[in-house]
Amino acid sequence: MARCDEGYLCEVCGEDVGNISDSDLYLRFVIGELDPERLHTTPERHIRCNPAVGQFIVHPDFEPLVCEGAFNKQELDPEYVQQRETLVSRGFERLREIEAQGPEGDITSYPLPEAIAKYRR
Question: Which residues pair with 23 in a beta bridge?
Answer without folding.
Answer: 46
